[in-house]
């Protein structure tokens, strides 16, 4: 349940009523794929919700336009809700879990906070250019220095975007090295764009880099380079 404080802080526009633009996609519950128990409901968290600010919605709409010619794809991020438990299993469109859960309460970290209070994001991938873009609005529970995002929260979203870029381009891989420069702080509840790209592949090693910029592109908030190592198929 979204708390009104978060709603006011991150998306003042929603208090004046819904957007009137032509039928943008929004979150909805859908039945899960056949491989899941029939009572489980699947929700795509990469779609707009009322906590998204105007900037977040505008950027989302711009990227959705880029998906029309097939060069960019939006990457869904599913949450599975059953009467017994609530989980986030995977972002892949086929909705298959990566592994059987050892812990029923386990959730994908950036999807574990309540709507609007933590990580609000959507990712888009360009398969030709091996690039992943994440539009990210960090909510009030992610505060570090007063009024700004915590560096760990920024690192989380950079790691996630780099990881998705590596995984989408090369298969299941884990972060082996992540090297970040924080250049300018990110105001809480503002929207930033994380641009990542696959730079090089050497055997099982995937070198991926990214930067974090303000929506207008004028402020470079952070930069990172990373190494992902593809896992041995027997370990996946
Ligand atoms: C079961 C895991 C599932 C993984 C997740 C899969 C799917 C997730 C699905 C949905 C999630 C959605 C979105 C989020 C996506 C991603 C973001 C999150 C990613 C993470 O948050 S993930 C957590 C933090 N991450 C770790 O917890 C890793 C701990 N670690 C290890 O598990 C091992 O360390 C591993 C596997 C990395 C490698 O181990 P290994 O035994 O397979 O390979 P090995 O050590 O032989 O290295 C092979 C070659 O890489 C070079 N190399 C290795 N490490 C290096 C380093 N640091 N610097 C420079 N070079 C390095 C070697 O020098 C060698 O190079 P060369 O071949 O040239 O000799």
UniProtKB/TrEMBL annotation:
Catalytic activity: hexadecanoyl-CoA + H2O = hexadecanoate + CoA + H(+); tetradecanoyl-CoA + H2O = tetradecanoate + CoA + H(+); (5Z,8Z,11Z,14Z)-eicosatetraenoyl-CoA + H2O = (5Z,8Z,11Z,14Z)-eicosatetraenoate + CoA + H(+); octanoyl-CoA + H2O = octanoate + CoA + H(+)
Database matches in InterPro entries: HotDog_dom_sf, THEM4/THEM5_acyl-CoA_thioest, Thioestr_dom
Keywords: Apoptosis, Cell membrane, Cell projection, Cytoplasm, Fatty acid metabolism, Hydrolase, Lipid metabolism, Membrane, Mitochondrion, Mitochondrion inner membrane, Transit peptide
Region (Disordered): 13-34
One term under GO cellular component: ruffle membrane
Top EC class, one word: hydrolase
Domain Thioesterase: residue ranges: 147-219
Superkingdom field: Eukaryota
Compartmental location: Cell projection, Ruffle membrane; Cytoplasm; Mitochondrion inner membrane; Mitochondrion intermembrane space
Main location: membrane
Pfam families per UniProt: 4HBT
The protein's Enzyme Commission number: 3.1.2.2
Membrane topology, from the record: Peripheral membrane protein
One BP annotation, GO: apoptotic process
Single GO term (MF): hydrolase activity
Similarity section: Belongs to the THEM4/THEM5 thioesterase family.
Protein name: Acyl-coenzyme A thioesterase THEM4
Species name: Ailuropoda melanoleuca (Giant panda)
Upper classification of the organism: Eukaryota, Metazoa, Chordata, Craniata, Vertebrata
